[in-house]
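Please, structure for the following, as tokens.
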Amino acid sequence: MMKLKYPLAIALLSLLLNACVVMSPKKYKALVADRDSLANRTANLETEQSRLQSDTARLHHQIADLNHQIADLNHQAADLNQHIAALNGNIADVQKKYEGLNNNYNATTSKVSELTSDLQKREARLKEVEDILRKRDEASTALKNKLQQALLGFQQNGLTVDIRNGKVYVSLADKLLFPSGSIVIDENGKAALKQFAAVLNKETDINIAVEGHTDDKKIINLGQIKDNWDLSVLRATSVTRYLTEVEKVDPHRLTATGKSEFQPVDPANTNEARAKNRRIEIVLTPKLDELYNLITK
């Protein structure tokens, strides 16, 4: 439209000029100037139009590029959303695993605390047991010393005192207590037991076990005594009766047992070994009620 407008004006102006018979130079110059101005404006407009068309084409190209970039970005955004969804799923799994691990940790920590507390209690009880056993050993040693001192005059006649496993063993050879093959305590034996009982009656926290032992020779013609079992038991009960009935040792503290020939101190097949095996052993054990109560808690 712009290309047609200005040339038409020029043509009309030319017709007017031709139609005029007389035109002053001044008007003519003015018209020429207007024509030139219009021509310049037309040229400028055509140039501007061309530039605008070029800019329009460039903008369309840029818009197309931008649309392509937007499409790419939308695609990338969709991919990122998928990745985010996957990561969120992984995070949920990790959180679930963390919660499981945390629960396990808490349970383990609680168990460790429980075990630590139990260990501390056990260590405290162990210390108490060790203290009681130490006191027992000290008491056994003190008792041994007292008995050795009290029975000093009989140690040449087959009496020994020693400590085994925290217990005091007073071993009396049968010749110190009984005539051969007899269950009746002789005077020498009574004297030894009297001295022994004097110590026992002062040491009331001691349990007493009287054990009869024989050699391996079979008994012949002893009347009511049928074998070594009988002999070992009856000698043990004879000593027990003497201690309780004559020397007034509390019978609640005593037990009597027969071991026959089956716990020899010397297994050799000699007369000397057999003499050692024929004996009464009095086993003295400090009362360990405190220890028993502690262990059975």
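The chain has seven helices and five strands. The two ends are 117 Å apart (CA to CA).
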